[in-house]
Design brief:
The structure holds 2 protein chains of 2 kinds.
Chain A (H helix, E strand, L loop, with lengths): L1 E6 L2 E6 L6 H8 L18 E4 L2 E4 L12 E3 L12 H8 L9 H14 L5 H7 L10 H17 L12
Parallel strand pairs in A: 1-5
Antiparallel strand pairs in A: 1-2, 3-4, 3-5
Helix pairs in contact in A: 2-5, 3-5
Chain B lengths: L6 H10 L9 H4 L34 E3 L5 E5 L8 H13 L6 E5 L16 H28 L6 E4 L2 E4 L4 E3 H5 L32 H4 L17 E5 L7 E5 L2 H4 L4 E7 L2 E6 L2 H13 L1 E4 L10 H7 L42 E2 L5 E2 L1
Parallel strand pairs in B: 2-3
Antiparallel strand pairs in B: 1-2, 4-5, 5-6, 7-10, 8-11, 9-10, 12-13
The chains are: A alpha+beta, B alpha+beta.
Bound molecules: FE2/S2 (inorganic) cluster (2 copies).
One FE2/S2 (inorganic) cluster binds next to loops of chain A.
Chain lengths: 166, 364
């Protein structure tokens, strides 16, 4: 069945079983690497993307529910040559070990920072409670998200990291 | 990630591909290590033990290649798993080769190209691979200096290596690529290397941002999971319910008609399904799992008393440290500490990609 999706601001026509979770469509049909398969069961958060401003576990949402919604993945936050503030902050603070959980962390953080560019550590911990990191990068992740908030404030454009999806 | 037929093929590929390599005698570069020629009657001595993983892959060109175009490739058999070794090993190579880290093409754990260093585990990468790379790099630098000294007709001490060139005090210079071009090297490493002095380090021991992080935070391909080959199929394994469970029965027809299913594979207690698309494989795996019957057996030790179990396995008893004398007047406290037995689980699931090539080789 043909389904139309908007990912990082670009429209796509997907031919997939409507019950297919978004994650597989992003990775296999759209060749986007950002969202990661960790558990496929809604337990780890590595597949987190943002849909209409909310952090969503893409391994759990059937693609048919997403027509007409704005989907953002880390590919929508900037590029390796022109990273957005959240990406810049994670690079600057070296906030990744294996990095496999990080895109999910970043998308949860992205949803948070859109609402609140200066979150407290409490806010960040709460927003990222569903994201697991097995490497133990937690303290750097917290620091990177605080830093991203600063960078966004400095640019005084809280939405500036959502380039194409904004 | 290529697997060629055997080690000999792999070697000949590396040796035959031109590049590095430095064909003059090592004994000239390492004048301090001149083994006197053995009398002809003595049986050949066993090869000297070499530092780190060099001992297993003894040729310098297994680790470092310098190409005629002055590009440099360094190889490690260790994999970057988030420990940062790609960056750390790169620093080691850059330091001893006297080049910028950005000048090195660094190849990690590729069975067709890199030394086989076994598992990447146990905090052994710097110790084994780092040691090998540091020694190989220092020896390659010494060879380059020796070759330049020969060409310029001056002593190696009149020369220095810098930024992929060897420079003489009188202003003459030659690039690494010029010094090795047209030569085939395939020399065994020596047990001793002339390392740089720590005081002169420019890269080692200095912070260098991890080279893999920008790709990982921008969605660039960074993991095996990100490989997408033409016509690639997806497989999922039907996991047994417990270790050593025996697959007694399963209904293949349950999966056969499902969308996208290409085949069901059974090998003893291993059961997997192959499908055109990933989620089709997931669905078929779930269906097959429901239709599979397993005979479970108790094989795990008593989970409520693992410390005792682990002590029964103990292999080595030693003293960590000892200092001073326990005074007989004080109180003596004794305690036994245990901690849970843990093994790392990574968030990224195990994943492999295999491609059968037209020539019958399998890339894994
Ligand atoms: S892959 Fe979606 S929560 Fe783990
Ligand atoms: S960095 Fe490895 S799981 Fe978080």
């Amino acid at each position: 069945m043909s389904i139309s999706l908007t990912v990082n601001g670009s429209p796509h026509q997907i031919d997939a079983d409507p019950s297919t979770p978004l994650l597989y469509v992003l990775r296999d049909d759209l060749a986007l690497n950002g969202a990661k398969y960790g558990c496929g069961l809604g337990q780890c958060g590595s597949c987190t993307v943002v849909v209409d401003g909310e952090a969503v576990l893409s391994c759990m949402v059937p693609v048919m529910l997403l027509e007409g919604r704005e989907i953002t993945t880390i590919e929508g936050l900037g590029t390796i040559d022109d990273p957005g503030p959240l990406q810049q902050a994670f690079i600057e603070l070296q906030a990744a070990q294996c990095g496999y959980c990080i895109p999910g962390m970043m998308m949860s953080a992205h949803a948070l920072l859109r609402r609140n560019a200066q979150p407290s550590d409490e806010d960040i911990r709460e927003a990222l409670a569903t994201n697991l990191c097995r490497c133990g990068t937690h303290m750097r992740i917290l620091a990177a998200i605080r830093r991203a908030g600063e960078l966004m404030k400095a640019a005084s454009l809280p939405e500036s990291d959502e380039r194409r999806a904004g | 990630m290529g697997i060629l037929k055997d080690e000999i093929t792999r070697r000949s590929v590396i040796a035959g591909a031109g590049g590095l390599v430095v064909s003059f005698s090592l004994s000239r570069a390492f004048a301090q290590a001149p083994a006197p020629p053995a009398p002809p009657t003595t049986p050949p001595a066993p090869p000297a033990s070499l530092p780190g993983s060099l001992d297993d892959d003894r040729f310098l060109d297994s680790w470092i290649r310098i190409n005629p175009d002055n590009s440099i490739t360094v190889f490690t058999g260790k994999a970057e798993l988030g420990q940062g070794i790609r960056t750390a090993l790169l620093q080691v190579a850059a330091e001893e080769l006297e080049v910028n880290p950005t000048e090195i093409e660094f190849i990690t754990a590729d069975t067709g190209r890199t030394p086989n260093e076994g598992f990447t585990a146990g905090s052994q990468s710097m110790q084994n691979s780092g040691t090998a790379i540091r020694n190989a790099a220092a020896q390659v630098r010494a060879l380059l200096l020796a070759e330049a000294a020969k060409r310029f007709g001056i002593a190696p001490t009149e020369l220095r290596a810098e930024n992929k060139s060897v420079l003489a005090k009188d202003g003459r210079s030659a690039t690494y690529g010029e010094l090795v071009s047209g030569q085939t090297l395939h020399v065994e490493a020596q047990p001793q290397s002339a390392f740089k002095q720590p005081g002169s380090f420019r890269v080692m021991g200095k912070p260098l941002p991890r080279v893999d992080i920008p790709a990982k935070v921008t969605g660039q391909p960074a993991y095996v999971h990100d490989l997408r080959l033409d016509g690639m199929l997806h497989a999922r394994v039907v996991r047994p319910p417990s270790p050593a469970a025996e697959l007694t029965e399963f209904d293949q027809s349950a999966a056969d008609g499902m969308p996208g299913v290409v085949s069901v594979v059974r090998d003893g207690n291993f059961l997997a399904v192959v499908a055109e698309k990933e989620f089709q494989a997931v669905n078929a795996m779930r269906t097959l799992a429901e239709a599979a019957r397993w005979q479970e057996r108790e094989t795990l030790p008593d989970q409520t008393d693992l410390p005792a179990e682990l002590q029964r396995l103990e292999r080595e008893v030693g003293t960590v440290a000892e200092a001073g004398v326990i005074s007989s007047s004080g109180k003596v406290f004794e305690a036994t500490y245990t901690r849970p037995y843990q093994i790392h689980g990574s968030i990224g699931p195990s994943c492999a990609v295999a491609q059968m090539k037209a020539d019958g080789t399998l890339d894994v």
